[in-house]
Write the structure tokens for this entry.
Amino acid sequence: MNRWPVKIGLAVVLLGVGFGAIVAVDRLGWINGSAAGNGTPSAAVRACPHGMPDAKCPFCDESLIDSMGFCQGHSVPEALCTSCWPAVKVAFKAVGDWCVGHSRPESQCELCNPGALSKFAPGDAETAAPPPAASGSVPPPPEPLLSGEDTPRHLRHANVTCNTQKLRVQFTTPEIAKAAGIKVEKVAERPVSQSVSAPAELHYDANRHARLKPRTGGIVHEVKAALGDTVAAGQVLAVLEAAELSQRKAEYLRLYREAQAAEKLVRQLEAWHRRMNDMEVRLTGNSYLESLSLVKLAEENFNREESLIARGATSKRELMDAQSAMVRARNMVSENERKLKLFGIDSETLKNLTPEQVATLDGQGSTSEQPVLEAQRSVSVLAAQRRAAHDQLRVLGLDPPAIQKVVDEEDTSGLLAVTAPFAGVIIDRQCTQGEMKTGDNVLFAIADISLMWAILDVREADLPRIRMGQPAILELAGLRGQRFAGIVTWLSTQVDRRTRTLKARVTVDNPDGLLRAGMYGSAEVTIRDRANSLVVPREALQWDGCCNLVFVRHSDLLYEPRKVKLGYETDRFYLVDSGLRAGEEVVTTGSFLMKTEIMKGNIGAGCCEVEPGVD
């Protein structure tokens, strides 16, 4: 089958006006007059715009796709296999067909586009013979080149095997082109704002919304706030009579007093212990000096007795008594010296010790420290118990001045105040005077309504474009005609399995109090704010069955079909990511006619598949 006819003559009718047109293939450049007489491409044609040698570029020479066969290892045509031919990566990147995340062409990336390789599967009439059909059976239809994806048509990637861009539409005469009513418009950059819409529901700011319960059970003694009141932080809303609070106060007061008494006893015992130690040390010092004096006298008496015994003036018994007294005196000195050293007095001090210095001796005597240690332990235990009782009063809601009042005034009343944790509005009240409430009962609900949260359900398809910090505009069903500005401050990390939506939070100021929790509406999150973008009119875009096309005007007679990669769409135009340049002229009125003529030339040619019944 001849896939690329050199020239096709067609007769078409547009808006009731008859004219003739020519749809031709420009593979040899005959329309622009660039072909040589022998069919050899000129130098301009040989220059590959995809950065590859002209003889090896499958985008410039589609015959390579058929001649090189199919790569069974990677399930793509050999000429398009970036694993076997890494050089072809340059060409894919040049046409904008490249998945950066997985380092492969976007049109071949099964991770991003499941089923993307199915269009390359061999088995059609040109790559492999179909299996023999059973007698009387109908052969199966060929596999489609495009997978049945749910991606919007304007966001689909161009088919790299499609050669529509090689065709040209040329009118035979200027009169026919004029009669066809062809209109063009220049491609231009303009500031574009882009937003994502999502349903929204208002909630109180969870950081400024509280449901107040009493710290302990009791009877409501007094209610000081009504539903709808605006209250300040710390304002008393209700007072309860709580028996537990009275008991905790009494316990704290008892422990406080006992701790004071124990501390006083410790101080007294420490003073007594110091006095006993000082007394013992100094008495021992006096005894030491006295024993030194006795030693001196005993030695003098012994010397005298020795001289008398030599003259026969005394008895031997008297000499022995004097010697015994001298030994006892020396032993007493040694004993006192040993005790003083045990008390911590050094030898140098003892050598020079005088009666005046005895009163200043400072050492550790032998008096037992056990009474002092017992008293100190009691103080430690009572201090820990008092701290625990103090913390229990804090848990029950008493501030430091109120706890000090328990000590100063011996206040053991059970009146417990319920206060507002922050400034706000009473949005619920569930208590009356005389009621018995437990710690599980909610008495009040308070909210700061100056700031509200709008919780959005963002579609899964819009997730890549939503970011924290983006501005949002909120419109509510109950406040038609009014719009409220906010900021995206949180994005959930989990998509709802049932609705396939992601929760997002928009923080909205509510200075006038118009916003109410539970309101429904919609939010427009601005993801592009007046950024200059290349745009093309909606009527210029055509779908030929596998690619998004526009027709670029070269002259009044010649028009080129151009593959384009599109982005955001509005009711009037598409944003162009690639395929066009600013200043080029594209066909608006008449583009469908040109697409129809190209489809006539392509049907059955095998370059792309046409969706039946779809424009």
Summary: Confidence is low (pLDDT under 50) at residues 1-46, 123-149, 601-615. Residues 216 and 244 are 7 Å apart (CA to CA). The first strand starts at residue 7 and ends at 14. The two ends are 26 Å apart (CA to CA).
